[in-house]
Amino acid sequence: MRLFFLKDFLDLVFPRNCPLCGKSLFDFEPCLCTVCQGTLPRANFHLRAFDNELTSKLRGLMPVNRAMAFIRFTKKGKSQKLLHLLKYKNKPEIGEEMGRLYGLTLVQEGGYSGEWDLIVAVPLHPLKQKRRGYNQSEKFAKGLSISLNIRSKEVLERRKFTETQTKKSRLQRLENVDEVFDLKDSENINGLRILLVDDVITTGATLCACANVLLANGAKLVDLATIAAGGQ
């Protein structure tokens, strides 16, 4: 009985609200309310993972296998608000929840089970991660790991501090990430099927740079998954 009183007290002092609509969350809603979960602008790229607008965008940058994204990025929409909260408002739980929900979607709708040996997140530079307090892509990887029952691990490192990609052209983005990433010295990924994840894909320059490092170090294949897919 005492535990119930404590929970009620904590809910009163520290209310749990949906970050999108502000409504109070039920106990079974970890982060987003059920209504907001159901109205996310889902991309459904996993239904045609080998042949969609993302794979077309990436051809020529890496040996493309599967490329997927959970939701579509729209300015001033729910996806932009979610990513802004995740990256700049200290809401790491949003990344994990997006991973959990997308992992369930991949299993239930796409039949993805046992497709990968390892989930790898695109790394942040240590200075940026220290400033933010976490890597949002690692939070996404953690949620996917739980739903897909596949381990996630930090095997890549970012060796150069790069400028923001937001206002750069496709060519500038490619140049900006050239020779930025590398495999951590003690890691062995030879023969592994890897799901490489990030928060958002626009031109694909960052993801492809990381994927090529993994493939060059012996990965059998690299599939890509992001929280959101944006325009050019």
UniProtKB/TrEMBL annotation:
It holds the Pfam family Pribosyltran. Residues 138-231 form the Phosphoribosyltransferase domain. SUPFAM superfamilies: PRTase-like. Belongs to the ComF/GntX family. This is ComF family protein. It comes from Algoriphagus lacus.
